[in-house]
Amino acid sequence: MAKKGEAEIEETKAGFSVGKFVQGTKEELDKVVWPTRQQLISESAAVILMVILSALLIYLVDNFFSWASTKVFG
Fold it and tell me: Which of 2, 12, 43, 48 has the CB geometry, 3.0–4.6 Å to 6, for a possible disulfide?
């Protein structure tokens, strides 16, 4: 009985098969649960909103520290 590691080595020696790769890729894509259009739109809007809010927060903090450094260092 071959060990698990030896079996994997024997499989890799056989080489790369494009057909097996395409078949495996298709099987994996069939397992994917794709979002509905409504889910896609609402989640995209949430991401865009969070990016805008994060950018605004960074902008405000940067302006505050810029203002504070001019007051401290003249």
Answer: 2
